[in-house]
Design goal:
The protein is α+β, with helices and mostly antiparallel strands. It folds into 5 domains: 5-190 and 241-273, Rossmann fold; 281-373, Beta Barrel (Elongation Factor Tu (Ef-tu), domain 3), CATH 2.40.30.10; 391-459, Elongation Factor G (Translational Gtpase), domain 3 (Alpha-Beta Plaits), CATH 3.30.70; 467-579, Ribosomal Protein S5, domain 2 (2-Layer Sandwich), CATH 3.30.230; 583-676, Alpha-Beta Plaits (2-Layer Sandwich). Helices cover 29% and strands 32% of the residues. Strands 18-17-23-14-15-22-19-20 form an 8-stranded antiparallel β-sheet. Helix 1 (19-29) packs across helix 9 (257-267). The protein is elongated, with a radius of gyration of 32 Å. The model has no long low-confidence stretch (mean pLDDT 94).
């Protein structure tokens, strides 16, 4: 395939900002699709999985590769819901420029800032596209001023709206000094807008002068600067990340999309012009004559083809029949079929060159985040920093005998989505699935049923309570049994005392004068540890305590390992019966990110969950609330948070420590367990 250049761009933004509509509009107006696919009509090129079609929003990364004006364009669309941030993080690895989409009625939302932070970490060029300007309460200029508060980049508007809300009909292009209406039809700039266009042309010139010494000197000396002199300067500013272009539009009415396409073609750096990258201690240029390095940023599973690994060629070339090194797994892979992807459609090609993106099938040991190289490169590129799962649910098969099919299906789904994990927990005897929210897990189970033909029921995961002691005590355990012939005899005294949280179980011995022969001490320890695993109050394992064997007696004939093991167990029970045992519950550290408007509701809700607020801080325009909350109180929290914040909040959660359960709640837990055992 002969192309003049490559552009890899991705669409990011808060949920429902219109990313997929922009992506479909882009394809249609660039001539890569014969019709304007729409999410609402279930005809989108990008939302092509059944779950996306049914729900009406993106759940996966979508990819479309096509040729436009002799450019190879790889357009990536990503979900906006925080449950699917893993898809967006995968997309960021593949692109050379990010288009950050903002709903003109909602403004800069939590997701907007979150994606911007991730994109800026990678030092990627950014375009802002303010969408849905035809809706009531749309305010382009207010959002423009807000953008300047959340990024250090110089924001340069290239288009401004003609009309507002119901009267919005097109955009005035500040650079081309022309108006563009629906489908990019050219028109004259309305007379009432010409003065504002001149003002924004002056701002554009100032922005260019800020980044170029030659232009700055002309500006300071009062010399006239032509717009044409600023174009190359702004291109360099976009490439370096000091400048971000801002565009206006309404994708549903095909307004402003042609301007976006033109900016991608004219201002976005070609894939091969991006800075060199480092691997194996070497800096490599993103050129065809460099050694081959590829990076797998996404894996999908299709019924007929199996796993398809989406790979970006970072440098060099790769073709069918080549042998690649998977340096992440220390294995070799043979290149079989290579496809260019456009939604569901695939076009087989023989070769990919530097900067291109394609789907590789039948790779044996390759997954998302793996680096593939030619023989002379041994290093690996950094893995994607996916967020840890924040919620867990237990699953139960609906049909007996489906356990293996479920496990195999979940394993394949994890390959597609590393933010989803699963494991069997022997302590609670449940199969636990974990993800970034209830919507995330619901989607996983829908795919499990559709792709692998097995159904499960979700149930509440059991809480891993623990038991411990609150004061020091001593107790004797004496086991004596005569059965004719040799009997059984073991006698030990144990001292039990509390330790600090997180210390676990400590065993010690302070036997003097051979009260218990040393050969029986391991049996005492084994009896102690086994008894502590059984708990006392509610059957949960003990923790954070020290047990010391300090005295006892033995019989030269009847004593045995089993007798001392039983005696130790009896001493632990005797100590517990003295009433100093309490229940501990896991406490999670929760970080909630919300607009300030919802702070009161969020804090009130956390308090009602027995949470302790430990900090609040502003993160850009967003507020972060940090709290310590019992794990038992966080069941289905993501659904509650979405409802409380109208979908504008997200949270992270991880285990923090164990803490004593209030007495009245302990009583309730013990009673519930007794009922369950009956």
């Amino acid at each position: 395939m002969t192309v003049m250049g490559i552009r890899n761009i991705g669409l990011f933004g808060h949920a429902s900002s219109g990313k997929t509509t922009i992506a479909d509009a882009f394809l249609f107006l660039a001539g890569a699709n014969s019709r304007f696919g729409k999410v609402s009509d279930k005809t989108s090129v990008f939302d092509c999985e059944q779950e996306e079609i049914d729900r009406g929003f993106s759940l996966n990364l979508g990819l479309a590769t096509f040729i436009y004006k002799e450019l190879n364009i790889n357009l990536i669309d990503t979900p906006g819901y925080s449950d699917f941030i893993g898809e967006a993080l995968s997309g960021i690895e593949a692109i050379d420029c990010a288009v950050l989409v903002i709903d003109a009625t909602s403004g800069v939302e939590v997701g907007t800032e979150r994606f911007l932070q991730e994109i800026e970490k990678k030092k990627l060029p950014v375009i802002f596209f303010i969408n849905k300007l035809k809706k009531e309460n749309a305010d382009y200029f207010n959002i423009l001023s807000t953008l300047k508060e959340i990024t250090k980049k110089g924001i340069v508007p290239f288009t401004i709206p003609i009309g507002e809300a119901g009267t919005f009909s097109g955009v005035a292009d500040v650079v081309k000094n022309k108006a563009f209406m629906a489908e990019g039809k050219e028109a004259e700039i309305p007379a009432e807008l010409k003065e504002k266009v001149v003002q924004y042309q002056d701002r554009l010139i100032e922005a260019a002068a800020d980044t170029d010494e030659k232009l700055m000197n002309k500006y300071v000396e009062g010399e006239k600067i032509e717009l044409s002199e600023c174009i190359e300067v702004l291109k360099r500013g976009v490439a370096s990340g000091s400048v971000a272009i801002c565009l206006a539009g309404d994708a549903l009415d095909l307004i402003g999309i042609n301007s976006l396409i033109d900016v991608v073609v004219e201002f976005i750096p070609a894939a091969r012009m991006r800075p060199d990258f480092e691997i194996d201690g070497k800096k490599l240029k993103r050129q065809d004559d460099s050694p081959f390095v590829g990076y797998v940023f996404k894996t999908v599973v299709e019924p007929h083809l199996g796993e398809i690994n989406y790979m970006k060629v970072m440098s060099g070339k790769v073709q069918s029949g080549d042998i690649m090194n998977n340096t992440t797994k220390s294995t070799e892979e043979k290149v079989n079929q290579i496809y260019l992807i456009k939604g569901k459609d695939k076009t087989e090609v023989n070769q990919l060159t530097s900067g291109m993106i394609g789907g590789f099938v039948k790779l044996k040991n390759t997954q998302t985040g793996d680096t593939l190289t030619s023989a002379d490169i041994k290093g690996i590129l950094p893995a994607i920093d996916f967020p840890a799962p924040s919620i867990s649910m237990a699953v139960v098969p609906k049909a007996m005998g489906d356990e293996e099919k479920i496990s195999n299906g979940l394993a394949r789904l994890h390959d597609e989505d590393p933010t989803f994990t699963f494991s069997y927990d022997p302590e609670v005897k449940q199969l636990i699935i974990s993800g970034l929210g209830e919507l995330h897990l619901d989607t996983v189970l829908l795919r499990l049923k559709r792709k692998y033909g097995v159904s499960v029921e979700l149930t509440k995961p059991k809480i891993k309570y623990r038991e411990t002691v609150t004061k020091k005590s001593e107790a004797q355990g004496k086991y004596k049994k005569q059965t004719g012939g040799h009997g059984q005899y073991g006698d030990c005294w144990l001292r039990v005392e509390p330790l600090e949280r997180g210390a676990g179980i400590e065993f010690a011995e302070e036997i003097f004068g051979g009260a218990i022969p040393s050969r029986y001490i391991p049996s005492v320890e084994k009896g102690v540890r086994e008894a502590l695993e059984q708990g006392y109050l509610a059957g949960y394992p003990f923790t954070d305590m020290k047990v010391t064997v300090f005295d006892g007696s033995y019989h030269p004939v009847d004593s045995s390992d089993i007798a001392f093991k039983i005696a130790a167990s009896m001493a632990i029970k005797s100590s517990a019966e003295k009433g100093n045992v309490v229940l501990l519950e896991p406490i999670n550290e929760v970080e909630v990110y919300v607009p300030e408007t919802f702070m009161g509701d969020v804090i009130g809700d956390l308090n009602s969950r027995r949470g302790k607020i430990v900090g609040m801080e502003a993160v850009g325009k967003i507020q972060k609330v940090k709290a310590l909350v019992p794990a038992a109180e966080m069941y289905k929290y993501s659904t509650s948070l979405r409802s409380m914040t109208q979908g504008r909040g997200y949270f992270n959660m991880k285990f923090h420590h164990y803490e004593e359960v209030p007495r009245e709640i302990t009583k309730r837990i013990v009673e519930e367990l007794k009922k369950a055992d009956k």
